[in-house]
Amino acid sequence: MNSEATGPAAGWRLPPPQAILILFACLRLAAAQEDADPRFNLIAERYWHILHENPRPGTAFDRWYQHYDDAGRAAELVEFLENADRNDPDFATHMLLGLVYERQQRLDDAQARYEAAEQVDDKQYVAPASLGRLHVQQRRFSQAAACLSRALERGPPVEETLTLYEQLGRAYLRLGQRQQA
Questions:
Q1: Pairwise CA distance, residues 161 & 20, whole Å
Q2: d(CA 87, CA 94)
Q3: Which residues, 6 or more positions from 68, have their beta carbon under 8 angstroms from its beta carbon?
Q4: Contact 98, 113 (CB under 8 A)
Q5: pTM above 0.85?
Q6: Distance between CA atoms of 148 and 144, rounded to whole angstroms?
Q7: What are the pLDDT digits (tens) for 127-141?
């Protein structure tokens, strides 16, 4: 055995209390970050399941996007949806990707996704309603009127009908077609 002393008797000194506190804080922060990722993913996945069943603008979409944006991970959301769109393009993925693009002001990309969604499922009212809303933003009122009319023909829920008629009426007024408004 080595007869040299170790520990405090050999000149080994305990770190100052501040160093211990800093080390403890760093360990807690690291543990919190490890815990945050699964929680982030759990929340994101719950919203994905809700929105994949019912892909439309509204509170659920707003909170889902905000969840990614607040974490600085909006690009990750776009990448996830683009991969899903490449691997298994369906109505919901097209719609959600269109909503994300619209939120990011990528309006041409949003329009392409909404049009793709309408081609996949021409019985849903959500895609032409979203296209109509997008055309109004871009001041393309004749295209907006056509899209909103298609949305109304597809029998939206009662709570959506009034809003769609209001948007359609505004589009007709912008076109100077007071009789149709």
A1: 63
A2: 12
A3: 44, 74, 76, 77
A4: yes
A5: no
A6: 6
A7: 999 999 999 999 999
